[in-house]
From TrEMBL:
Taxonomy, superkingdom: Eukaryota
GO molecular function, one term: kinase activity
Protein name (Swiss-Prot/TrEMBL): Carbohydrate kinase PfkB domain-containing protein
Domain Carbohydrate kinase PfkB positions: 85-345
Family statement: Belongs to the carbohydrate kinase PfkB family.
Alphabetical UniProt keywords: Kinase, Transferase
A Pfam family: PfkB
Keyword Protein biosynthesis among record annotations: no
Organism whose genome encodes this protein: Erythranthe guttata (Yellow monkey flower)
Entries under PANTHER family matching the protein: OS01G0105900 PROTEIN, SUGAR KINASE
Length: 375
């Protein structure tokens, strides 16, 4: 990939380093910074792009440009969507740690790389505005990753990431200092990042940092199931989160394969296992305890982008605060419900307010440190 730029003065390996700053409580590993282009489109466009609707399928840069060109013709107008595209810092891990910082007041940082281009500047500006620690984000010569997020009339999202030419942090870039002092490392399964994921997890375990793994997409689980099983069976994953489609792929071919059997499988290898069920809520297991929580909130999904990522924000917040498994699930359900009320994986201030009211109504603890709570 790109050659790393000379770092700023007193900056060990990333952007805006502060040697006196304590380690973030939660670190997210996103090897390539990513910018999301989010748009509502009609089904006719979804039928003509590569891959199945509803999932995440990598595309080449020319394909990404072609999709973006067509978005204007297939954009679905709405009162809160005057522009064809909403462009923000994206990626599952970035969504999760941004939610933890913005809505829950947990100190977070990101490990990865961004390009010295306009997309990289946008990523840095957006994450900085939420006080994300960027001292572990390397600046490299080259392109920043991009993803088109297409949202249909029912609020379902189809993602087409373009990472083939994006700069990324490599396994040999990582050091123990990247993770020392933090409590959790958040990672997302991706076969093209498997080496850096494995390296980060190895360092995390050496430093006493717990690891949370998101299963990414049903396509990723389907195509690279054996490598995923090796990762789970290593015993290094403390928390694993899967949606219903990913869970189905994980146990495909087994008798009585369903979300429950996937939960049982995950719980054999992880301390905490969670399967989110969309409008049906979630199921989770820790030790011998199993809970099933209904979805919270009656709002119709405007855009499902980031629902699982923000569920993870709430669930991790609960774990950091030592809450019960049921409380972790309920807070996760509230935070996941907050992001689907508007376009993109970034929760608006109004929707954080909605979440806090849900927490209050259900007798759940409201974060003491956050940017948006009003009593």
């Amino acid at each position: 990939m790109g050659v790393e730029n000379p770092p700023p003065k007193n900056n060990r390996n990333g952007l805006f380093a502060d040697a006196a700053a304590p380690a973030p409580v939660i670190l997210g590993l996103q090897p390539s910074a990513l910018v999301d282009h989010v748009a509502r489109v009609d089904w006719s466009l979804l039928s003509r792009i590569p891959g199945e609707a509803g999932g995440s399928f990598p595309v080449a840069f020319d394909e990404l440009k072609s999709i973006l060109t067509e978005v204007n013709a297939h954009n679905v107008a709405s009162p809160d969507n005057s522009s064809p595209l909403k462009t923000i810092a994206g990626g599952s891990v970035a969504n999760t740690i941004r939610g933890l910082s913005a809505g829950f007041g947990i100190t977070c940082g990101i490990i990865g790389a961004c390009g010295n281009d306009d997309q990289g500047s946008l990523f840095v500006d957006n994450m900085s505005s939420y006080k994300i620690d960027l001292s572990r984000l390397r600046l490299k010569n080259g392109h920043t990753g991009q993803c088109v997020c297409l949202v249909d009339e029912l609020g379902n999202r189809t993602m087409r990431p373009c990472l083939s030419s994006a700069v990324k942090v490599q396994a040999n870039d990582l050091t123990s200092a990247d993770l020392r002092g933090s409590k959790w490392l958040v990672v997302r399964y991706a076969i093209f990042n498997i080496e850096v994921i494995q390296a980060a997890i190895k360092i995390a375990k050496q430093e006493g940092v717990r690891v949370s793994l998101d299963l990414a997409s049903f396509e990723m689980v389907r195509k690279f199931r054996s490598q995923l099983l090796q990762l789970l069976e290593s015993g290094s994953i403390d928390l694993c989160l899967a949606n219903e489609d990913e869970a189905a792929e994980l146990v495909s071919g087994e008798e009585n394969a369903d979300a429950g059997s996937a939960l049982e499988f995950l719980s054999k290898h992880c301390q905490w296992a969670v399967v989110t069920l969309g409008s049906k809520g979630c199921i989770a297991k820790h030790g011998k305890e199993v809970v099933r929580i209904p979805a919270i909130g009656e709002a119709k999904a405007v855009d499902a982008t980031g629902a699982g990522d923000l569920f993870a924000s709430g669930f991790l917040y609960g774990l950091v605060k030592g809450l019960s498994l049921e409380e972790c699930c309920k807070i996760g359900s509230c935070s996941g419900g907050s992001v689907i009320r508007s376009l993109g994986g970034e929760v608006t201030p109004d929707n954080w307010q909605w979440m806090y009211k849900q927490l209050q109504t259900k007798g759940l603890p409201i974060p003491e440190s956050n940017n948006f709570y009003q009593s």
